[in-house]
Amino acid sequence: MKAKFNNRGFTLIEVIVAIAVIVTALIGSVALISFSVSSTRTSRSRIIAEGLTQEGLEIVRNIRDNNWLNFKRKASDWRDGLPEGNWRVEYDKLQLLSDASSTLMLDPSGFYFYQDQGTRTGSVATPFQRRVGIEYIGNNQIKATSEVTWQENGRQNSVKAELILYNWLEEPET
Prior knowledge:
Blueprint: H1 12-69, E1 85-87, E2 103-106, E3 112-114, E4 124-138, E5 141-152, E6 155-166
Antiparallel strand pairs: 1-4, 2-3, 2-4, 4-5, 5-6
Protein name: Prepilin-type N-terminal cleavage/methylation domain-containing protein
InterPro entries: N_methyl_site
Pfam family, one: N_methyl
């Protein structure tokens, strides 16, 4: 008499191989999703930092332009309010602020500010610090450097930009 085998089921090896394939696919998918979320968060922070860096340079340019509007175009006064050194800046102020190491806060309207410049209801701390450096290159040139730093995922990140401003509206000294 011949033995009958049940050929309708799976063998133990087939089940183990199938489970291994499914687990490998799941682990790969979870790793890819985790990496994507982390990359998205890092990209978002970098975009914000680049905007804050550019804003720092625009504030310095705005101070220079306001000097021109107030007829300060001579080599001796076109850079009033722009002394050499490292500074903080805020979007709504036409002045440089001391102590370039404070952390920026974010108010509910989406504007960044320093906490020592007043409290705003609903504001949250951010990881960003902005430093604006001013260096005189000559009588008619200023080098402005804006750098934003932040820590994320255990890594120190930074974005830096430079701008050379000229006194191209110079009036001769009288």
